[in-house]
Amino acid sequence: MNVPEQVKRLGLVVGVIVVGVLLTRFYLLPRSLVSTELQRASTVAWWSAWPAKFAGSETCQACHEDVAARKSKGFHKNLACEGCHGPAVKHAEDPSAVKPSAPRDRKFCPVCHAYDASRPTGFPQINPVAHNPLKPCIACHNPHDPVPPRTPTACAACHAQIERVKAVSSHALLQCTTCHTVPERHKTAPRSALPSKPETREFCAKCHGKDATLVKEAPRIDLSTHGGAFRCWECHYPHLPGERT
Amino acid sequence: MKRREILKGLILFIPAGGALRALASQGGPTVAGPKEGSGKPDAKVYDPESHYYGMGIEVDKCIGCNRCVEACKAENDVPQEPFFFRTWVERYVIKKDGEVIVESISVKGGARQPAVQEDPDVLRTFFVPKLCNQCANPPCVQVCPVQATFSTEDGVVLVDRDRCIGCRYCIQACPYGARYLDPRTKTADKCTFCYHRVVKGLLPACVEACPTQARIFGDLKSRASRLVRFTRMNRVHVLKPGLNTEPKVYYAQLDGEVR
Lengths: 245, 259
Known about the structure:
The complex is a heterodimer.
Chain A: H1 5-28, H2 31-34, H3 36-48, H4 57-63, H5 65-71, H6 81-85, H7 89-93, H8 110-113, H9 153-158, H10 160-167, H11 176-179, H12 201-208, H13 232-235
Helix pairs in contact in A: 4-5
Chain B: H1 2-45, E1 53-58, H2 67-76, E2 87-95, E3 100-104, E4 122-131, H3 139-143, E5 149-151, E6 157-159, H4 169-173, E7 180-181, E8 188-189, H5 195-198, H6 205-209, E9 215-219, H7 226-233, E10 236-237, E11 249-252
């Protein structure tokens, strides 16, 4: 077999290139550069090493046992601590240096509890405009054990209309008996034993007067300049005081 | 005659290359042996082969509060500006005439106002949380020209940020719109099921933060996991089943209009 000289030389050159490429590919290059498995393993390791920012409720409970015990019995028992308080890994690592947020204003709770037609039926929802305007939610509801405040159902059994209006007013938390004295006989003979009604401006002023001390959050007026000779309920309906009648 | 010789030579070359390759591959593992050995202690702590993760979503429980979105952004350092989401919540409004309005309520300052309150035209309205479906047959992985994205053994689709060239092909390919291009790294980014939390035995941030347990996370390989129980006890659906992507996010009480 007579192989021409130029073919031999070309063959040699090609051979050197092929061997060079193979050597580089399989011996000189580090395996991490060519191995898919190693690359993927390093990516998996990279993602696994991402720092977590949410500690998880169990971590919170380790220190805040009292809150956890209270929360575990209430409607909010399934809520994660960090759902409201924000990510707390840093707080868990150094409790005194970093404090998680504790939302206190009225904007926070309606994120879940404002009425929205798309929310599932039965989920507790309120109208933030009509529901005790300006009052912070935590003044009435403990976020760790939220219980809807109620007026005595005995009154609402007959006076349901008033109860419904009052429930969305800023007087929602007042018991009926705060303003009305109800004789026991009223329950059995409602028309012959009537409950009392406030008769003077001074009665409302006990909470709303300039110097009143009974309730901290109530709006204040000066009796001597406000309203002249009119009595309070001639302008303000006591069961829905935000609305003027 | 000459041409035949060249061809003969070539025929000889090819098996020679194969032999070299075989030799090289014999040499390969011995070089990498110690590395693999050193990696094993980690494997004992967490064995990806014994897990296969998925998520369940109970549509009837979602109140559209966006806590999951905020938690996800905080946990995974997702850009705070709108339009970058690893998970988001959609509001569906189905009108009586059959019109369906879908909007993302996760865009701040945008559509986050309550829906039509007492609109007689509305037949049904509800929220649907969405995220990467971690498909078992992921189109995004198929189209990646540099194999920067892949499925792990435990069933999570991850992106290699060093390898990604930012071509956005995967973003186009994803039928669920679950990917976005991170404006800072210029690489594709997506939900990882909070891989770093999951391997430590923690729940993903969105599941942790959800106040109504609308999201259920679990291991499909464990018969006792919450997710397997959820898929047994509920009639579950996946999104766009016709695409054969085999998603691992299972929806219960899903309205037929949800795409």
